[in-house]
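Q: Sequence in, structure out?
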Amino acid sequence: MIKQSEAIDACHKALLDKYDRNVPRYTSYPTATHFDSGVNEQIYHSWISNLNKGDSVSLYFHIPFCQQLCWFCGCSTKIVKRYNPVQSYVELLEKEKKLITELLPSSLDVRHIHFGGGSPNILRCEDFSRILKLSNEKFTLHKQAEIAVEVDPRTISSQMIVTLAKEGVTRVSLGVQDVNLKVQKAINRIQPYEKIQQVVDSFRLNGIEKINFDLIYGLPYQSCESIIHTIDLVSKLRPDRISLFGYAHVPWMRRHQLLINETNLPDIYSRFQLYQSAVDRLKHQGYVQIGMDHFALPDDEMLKAKNEKTLKRNFQGYTTDPAQVLLGFGASSIGYTQEGYVQNTSALKDYELALNQNRLPVSRGIQLSSDDLIRREVIETLMCYLEVNLEMVLAEYNLDPEFFSGELIELKTMEKAGLVRIKNLHITIPAENRVFVRSVCSLFDSFLKTNKAQHSLPV
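A: Exactly. Output:
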């Protein structure tokens, strides 16, 4: 591991030493590590059937293919050199979409559509258009709906950019990660800055103005100086939003990460320095931090949602999407209704088998209990706003005053360490400690006490 190169203030070093344990990213609660086979196709059928005409829904399409393996990647994807597997997959997506829509009531209000991967731009233009086409009898696209697509700037064609614009895509998210060539070589993702700039210019020329960048800290060979250089370069392109994710080195889950030399990864102290350097530079460049790892320009609607307390967190990170239902399509995709979460099988052969038998490819999920709903609200509120009023939660759910007594004991320990502030039952995480928000959330996670699932570093 690369060791810390400069001093960290005593308070943060003490917090790093005390809370250096892996915790979930909390893009959901309960997290996907706690899903099980108890939720099956029949249960998902009943959940979908309970939807009512006019309900707001979002749609997620997972495209699990890439042209090249990035060694840092934690996504569910498959490397392909020919288009045939992708073409076959599009046919399966159409079958799944048909099975789902047959179960739905009519006139659902679609508020958000997201294409994730993998690399969705691996699709041919006509196939992207085909997947996006919705049944007018089942779905009504809201006039302010967002259509977002994740993009690999190395491989997207000019024809695909034109197609995305023609089909009404409103937002694209570019995987940038880092502009330093040494870092790029260490993660097997060579991506010249000039190529990123060219793609951004092309999107804007075609009328797609809302642009996100994904950056990663904690990669091999990164230094505070190099990550500041990355921030300065990408800031020149003025993306509306920038996500700053900590690299999760989980080779027990993604074996290709073993191709990354662990001795070139930063230790926990250096990770914190990288994070802090990036945060400070992003603020210097005019971005406002939202939650744990998102940044937006001051006029962005995500900042408005934060200020109006309508910000949400889901599997894509922080979002302004107000829908309470997400219908997931594709291998490994996750969806949810008010009853619970559901995930499709990740294995392409199992996904294909189920659909060829006219079955939904559900493999696991979790039905939400009343306790889950309470804890989910607390965790999501903390993740979005760095504070939660437990007194209001107790009143909302008509809970016994002692419901959070165990958590409060642990929170008082965190208060003594300087991590949180407690006034009556109002818990606040100071802005300078926001990087530890997942550690605070973990106190409310009842599954962590009994489950041995491995997660990512707190910073």
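Residues 84-103 form the longest helix (20 residues).
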